[in-house]
Amino acid sequence: MRILIAYATTEGQTRKICRFLSDRLVDAGHSVELLHVEDAGPLDAARFDAAILAASVHAWHVQPAFIAFAKANATALAGLRTLYLQVSLGAVGNDPEERADLDKIAAEMVEKSGWTPGRTAHVAGALRFDAYDFLKAWVMRRIARDHDMPFDPKGTTEFTDWAALEALADEWAGGATG
Ligand SMILES: Cc1cc2nc3c(=O)[nH]c(=O)nc-3n(C[C@H](O)[C@H](O)[C@H](O)COP(=O)(O)O)c2cc1C
Hints:
This protein has helices at 13-27, 64-72, 74-78, 96-113, 134-146, 162-174, and strands at 2-7, 31-36, 50-58, 61-62, 81-88, 119-124, 126-128, 156-158. The chain is of the alpha/beta class and 178 residues long. The longest helix has 18 residues, at 96-113. It starts with a strand and ends with a helix.
């Protein structure tokens, strides 16, 4: 399959996730184009069989640039097999209230962009104290402590389940008919 992977990221974890998926899909024999949404122009849907779109959650919303990309390309995307990955800390663990909040954020993305993904998956992200400014570090320390999350106050603590992502990529791409 020819697969587009387009992402938005603020601190870099979603980029890392998308690079990981790209490597996995290329190894499985697919051709992949990896794009940051801010570098992407209008999509030529005829160039792809499938697309993975990924964004991360900050203060209960995904990046406006991601919504703009999905909106501008909603028609092209509607003709492709698609997977939406929403990266967050709420996806760490299986708290039903957090999940309900994440589903609302995903629903808001759909409502604002007019693009309905074929499939949506919540992916646990990371705490990246090496990428935060003073204010973000202060807020995130409080959130991490409130949620009993282990963290490295000077570095990155990843919660992403790479094995689960690998399985998702294999299953999603393996089940595609193109
Ligand atoms: C300022 C800030 C606000 C955040 N707000 C939320 C939030 O509302 N809900 C949530 O689940 N995660 C939230 N997160 C966690 C991010 O979604 C997580 O760190 C993710 O890995 C970021 O991905 P990125 O590095 O690709 O931007 C927040 C992180 C930061 C730094």
